[in-house]
Amino acid sequence: MIELSDVHKSFGSKDVLRGVNLTLPKGESMVIIGGSGTGKSVLLKCVLGLIQPDTGSIAVDGQDVTRLRQGSSERDAFLARFGMLFQGGALFDSLPVWQNVAFRLLRGSLKRPKSEAREVAIEKLRRVGLTPDVADLFPAELSGGMQKRVGLARAIAAEPEIIFFDEPTTGLDPIMSGVINELIREIVVEMGATAMTITHDMSSVRAIADDVAMLHGGVIQWSGPVKDMDASGDPYVTQFISGSADGPIETVR
Amino acid sequence: MSFLATIGRTVLGFLAAIGSVTLFAMETVSHLFRPPYYPREFGHALLQIGYFSLPVVGLTTIFTGGALALQIYAGGARFSAEAVVPQIVAIGMVRELGPVLVGLMIAARVTSSIAAEIATMKVTEQIDALTTLSTNPMKYLTLPRVLAATLVMPVLVGVGDVIGIMGGYLVGVERLGFNASTYLRNTVDFLEFLDIVTSLAKGAVFGFLAALMGCYFGMRSGRGAQGVGRATKGAVVAASVLILAANFILTELFFAA
After folding, report:
1. Which residues of chain B does A70 touch, with a Cβ-Cβ cutoff of 8 Å?
2. How much is the CA Rg of chain B, to the nearest whole Å?
3. Which of its termini does chain A have fewer beta carbons within 10 Å around, N or C?
4. Does residue B116 sit within a domain?
5. Digit-coded pLDDT (tens) for A91-123
């Protein structure tokens, strides 16, 4: 379970998060929606400790993760439970695909023999619909959709309990988006993992989410089960879903 | 008053930069004593910084050694001291030009590529990805490069010194009519052990600074292509200036006495 309470973060004079309260139950898939630049990525990075929140607490299974020191073994143990799919894939372009996928298994506390790590990598690649011959290519040789899938394979390679997806369908065509959404849903269900996805793609929301939370103005404007989203009665959510220019969300930002 | 504020801001900014570079350097060095280590990354850095820099080091120093021989000959002729060419070339190359030129070439070749690579990794979230994969970027990226540069630069400087002297020798013997064996004897006899030690020590310091600046500016890169460009430019300028400043300080330390 992930609990954020009263999380604040500002960059210079710009207040990005102004008191975010959010609870993500174990095994649920939560999608956070919101316009560009509303701080969705910042929120996610705060949980991972990539960005330190100014005030507020973030607890994962009761442990306050904002107190973990960089490089400490507690923090390593905490990160070992996570998998993250970055927006642009964030694959290491100096390493071939299989070493990207098996990155965690080739070094550190989860280290395994090379041949075994490669086998796991190929199995994970197959899981995301890629053939074994992709394994020895370099990330730059792959299309955007394939890079996303490799990123997904890397995120799930070490069987994480919690997976974060940062805009998993951005920059993909509608069909590839559908494929990625379906994969995410399957993987989350099959692994029983807790998932947090940030997106502004409504088709992703409907495909992936158990629960939806809308981030606007630095706070969670609305949250609830995905089935209640259409009848939320919240003007922000309604405007966001319909993609209308008229409503409380300013179009000039 | 605004002019005073500008001075104040500049001074404070400068002091803050010194502080953050110092902290960055200390953190880098501290990882030397704290596992895990990444030997593969270290080996790769040795190859990239050391082996692949050899051509550029050789070309830079051979031409400089040759030009130095011509200049000393022309200058020396004004007071009938043409014969000092071998000694001056050897001492000039080893004590000063070898380390400085190799240092600057490394700043151009290695610092820029480290800064651009790490900055691109930062911009494309690869640095964040490393962290989420329980890998400390300072251990995985910075330490191997800084350590490799510090260890391999003395070797490069040594090679540069030798090739520079060879450049002077070729010009001296082929163009200025020196006797080959006399030239070599004069080179060897007048060069002291301390000259060579300080030459290599300078190399180590310059290598440390060059790689450190590349990593520092890369890790602090701003967003987008412009951010990468700025990081690279800043790294090369800072590395070059620091190398020249450190050269002065080291020369003062070694030779003032």
Report:
1. 136
2. 21
3. C
4. yes
5. 998 899 999 999 988 887 778 888 999 999 999
